[in-house]
């Protein structure tokens, strides 16, 4: 019995550690910055700063689950953002055409990675490392070392704009609060539906009072977050896009055969092959998906800065991979979640934002983030050994 209880405790710690970490980080930075960190304005800025990293994280987490990696994320994001900037600034393309071109080019680069990894069986580390170096060089050539600006207003709005409000007389952003109430309603309905399914199929569930208390606390947290955002200028378009993509990839990873194949490959590639899974097709598709998400991330980053530079996307791969691992993805493959990757992105974004507010020098920030990544991986490996 003690071993079962300790195993359950370890499972809970691993499952919810990212949430605990996020809460602790926010409390610490709120105290050390004199309350500035948790102001509506700064939380909105945090959403802007996190969105493009989170978009990469929800893709790379699937790559990591499958047992691979992608070191080209930062350079590819910068390159695709630079391409979209050049197309509109120098060639006068419309915003829809620029976005379409960026996504298609991103998918092409992803297919290039997928070809070498899935069909030529070259390790993902080598293929994407080559991409990281090559894409940065192409970006420097593309921009000529200069800043490409400004973007079209419609394009810039994607990275800087907010959802419009209905009434100008209310002391809060009403549209955001409506979305918050809808989000809580969907969350409660989803949790109740999942509980009923588990009961129907004979899976164990917690007691009703504990279930209700958990839903109540989570709903209050969701509504509180929306309220904080509503007290400033409302929810940004970039956050809405992130939520939309997160919901899609969460569904794909948990409710479709493709998602099950990804987990199966990461858990035991030989068993997956013997069960008839087309491993090459799945791996190829993962990198095509990753290329399209790099385009979306590049769009958000370029639109937010209203410019493209040769240094755009530097170290984005580190933040995205760290976010995925903090969010529960195992470096050994077979474990992770899209929702966890978003929470992990919020953790890394909070660290960057909080250390910036505290005026911690950049060199020390890099040291701190490197140590955090090392500790998270050490924790993950330790938990795996204990389970065995």
UniProtKB/TrEMBL annotation:
Topological relation to the membrane, as annotated: Multi-pass membrane protein
Keyword terms: Cell inner membrane, Cell membrane, Membrane, Sugar transport, Transmembrane, Transmembrane helix, Transport
Subcellular location: Cell membrane
Transmembrane segments: 16-38, 50-67, 73-91, 98-119, 125-149, 170-190, 210-230, 237-253, 284-303, 324-347
Listed GO CC annotations: plasma membrane
Function noted in UniProt: Part of the binding-protein-dependent transport system for D-xylose. Probably responsible for the translocation of the substrate across the membrane.
Protein name (Swiss-Prot/TrEMBL): Xylose transport system permease protein XylH
């Amino acid at each position: 019995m003690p071993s079962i209880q300790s195993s359950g405790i370890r499972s809970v710690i691993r499952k919810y550690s990212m949430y605990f970490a996020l809460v602790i980080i926010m409390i610490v930075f709120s105290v050390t910055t004199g309350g500035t960190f948790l102001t509506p304005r700064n939380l909105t800025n945090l959403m802007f700063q996190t969105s493009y990293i989170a978009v990469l994280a929800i893709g790379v987490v699937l790559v990591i689950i499958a047992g691979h990696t992608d070191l080209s994320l930062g350079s590819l994001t910068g390159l695709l953002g630079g391409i979209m900037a050049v197309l509109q600034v120098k060639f006068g393309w419309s915003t829809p055409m620029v976005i379409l071109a960026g996504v298609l080019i991103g998918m092409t680069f992803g297919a290039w990675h997928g070809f070498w990894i899935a069909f030529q069986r070259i390790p993902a580390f080598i293929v994407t490392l080559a991409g990281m170096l090559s894409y940065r060089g192409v970006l420097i050539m593309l921009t000529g070392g200069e800043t490409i600006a400004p973007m079209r207003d419609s394009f810039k709005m994607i990275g800087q704009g907010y959802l419009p409000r209905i009434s100008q007389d209310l002391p809060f952003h009403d549209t955001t609060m409506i979305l918050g109430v809808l989000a809580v309603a969907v969350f409660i309905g989803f949790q109740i539906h999942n509980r009923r399914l588990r009961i129907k199929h004979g899976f164990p569930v917690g007691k009703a009072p504990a279930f209700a208390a958990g839903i109540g606390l989570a709903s209050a947290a969701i509504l509180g977050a929306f309220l904080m955002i509503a007290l400033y200028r409302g929810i940004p378009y970039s956050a809405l896009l992130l939520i939309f993509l997160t919901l899609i990839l969460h569904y794909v990873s948990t409710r479709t055969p493709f998602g099950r194949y990804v987990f199966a490959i990461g858990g035991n590639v030989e068993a997956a092959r013997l069960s008839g899974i087309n491993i090459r097709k799945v791996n190829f598709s993962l990198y095509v998906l990753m290329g399209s998400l790099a385009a979306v991330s590049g769009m958000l980053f370029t639109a937010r800065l209203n410019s493209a530079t040769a240094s755009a996307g530097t170290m984005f791969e580190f933040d995205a991979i760290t976010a995925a691992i903090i969010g529960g993805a195992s470096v050994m493959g077979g474990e992770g979640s899209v929702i966890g990757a978003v929470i992990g992105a919020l953790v890394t974004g909070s660290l960057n934002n909080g250390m910036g507010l505290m005026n911690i020098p950049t060199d020390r920030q890099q040291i701190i983030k490197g140590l955090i990544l090392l500790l998270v991986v050490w924790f993950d490996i330790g938990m795996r050994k204990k389970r065995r």
